[in-house]
Design goal:
Distance between the termini: 38 Å
Radius of gyration: 15 Å
Mean pLDDT: 94
Number of strands: 7
Shape: globular
Number of helices: 3
Strand order of the largest sheet: 1-2-3-4-5-7-6
Order of helices and strands: EHEEEHEHEE
């Protein structure tokens, strides 16, 4: 039996209740993977640094998210990409990523960068499949053994 669903991408404030809920679920998953509550080097994204935050709603229920943080060089870094376990493999992550890429293109961004970690091989495969290329660790991730960085020309 084939199931069809309605997918809606919405730009919401970083502190929106659905954003907080999805980011908390992501944090719990990362804490379990890395065995620490603080596995992210550098300054954490916040409502001042995240310039756009998208939530994917499936039939009205928050199913995934992602945002862009503005960098000092005027570029953008993908932050807080997450899809609920029940919705993985359904195209939600691709929809959020495409939405972020479109937003960045509209701002005349030439590329996007991101950091993920060695305990997230699924994320590494996803970004590589979506055209992101591994780069030297940048910024706060420089010298971090658990960090893996990527970029994609837009």
């Amino acid at each position: 039996m084939e199931y069809t669903y309605e997918l809606e991408l919405r730009s919401v404030p970083f502190e929106h209740a659905d954003s907080v809920m999805l980011r908390s679920a992501q944090r719990a998953e990362l804490t379990a993977r890395y065995k620490t509550e603080d596995s992210e080097p550098g300054v954490k994204p916040n409502s001042d640094s995240v310039v756009v935050f998208l939530i994917a709603y499936v039939d009205g229920i928050p199913a995934g998210c992602g945002g862009l943080r503005e960098l000092d060089n005027g570029g953008f870094e993908i932050k807080r990409m997450y899809v609920t376990p029940a919705q993985r493999g359904t195209g939600i992550a691709i929809a959020v990523l495409r939405g972020l890429e479109e937003w960045a293109r509209a701002q005349s961004a030439a590329e996007l960068v991101l950091e993920t970690g060695t305990a997230q091989p699924d994320a590494m495969r996803f970004y590589e499949r979506e055209g992101y290329n591994r780069i030297d660790n940048f910024g706060a991730y420089t010298g971090e053994d658990l960090s893996v960085c990527y970029s994609k020309a837009l």
